Amino acid sequence: MNLRVFKKDIEYFVGEFIDDCALFVALNPSKDSDEIATIIDEAVDLYNELKQKANHPEGNKRAFYSNLTKEMFEKIDALCEKLSAVVSK
Question: I need a labelling partner for 61 at 20 to 30 A (CA). Which of 7, 25, 54, 80 fits?
Answer without folding.
Answer: 80
